[in-house]
Amino acid sequence: MNRVVLTAQIVERQALRYTPAGLPALDLRVAHDSVVQEAGASRKVSFEMRAVGIGAMAERLNRIAVGDTARIAGFLGPIARGKSVVLHITELQSIDPQAPEPAATVREP
Q1: Residue 107: inside a domain
Q2: Which uninterrupted H or E stretch holds 54?
Q3: Can the keyword DNA-binding be found in this entry's annotation (predicted)?
């Protein structure tokens, strides 16, 4: 399974572009900060990553301001001719940045 769900802040948004097939596409950078439990200890996790929205999702993402926080979900795909990955956003839910975020928990099998 290839599914990613996280709360992230939009830290950079490029101009809306169009794919060769004519679909709107929007390239973003998102930042995530949380505290997770791993091997019985708390661990702070902070990172930025590339993300993209295609089609109607690109248009929705284009209406979100840089600095806004949202709950996003999608899948990881390769960046053309590279070994890096980009998060393809397929679900988006705006959230209140003042609402407390529960600590993320990673469950080991």
Answers
A1: no
A2: strand 41-54
A3: yes
pTM for the model stands at 0.83
**pLDDT higher at 80 or 24:** 24
Instruction: Tell me which residue has tokens 């709950």.
Output: 71
**What average pLDDT does the segment 48-74 reach?**
96
Domain presence at residue 108 = no
Cα 109 to Cα 87: distance, rounded to the nearest angstrom:
25
Give SS3 for 62: helix
Q: Is residue 96 classed as helix, strand or coil in its secondary structure?
A: coil
66 part of a folded domain: yes
Which of the four pLDDT bands, split at 50, 70 and 90, describes residue 106? very low
Helix, strand, coil content of the chain in percent (nearest 5): 5, 60, 35
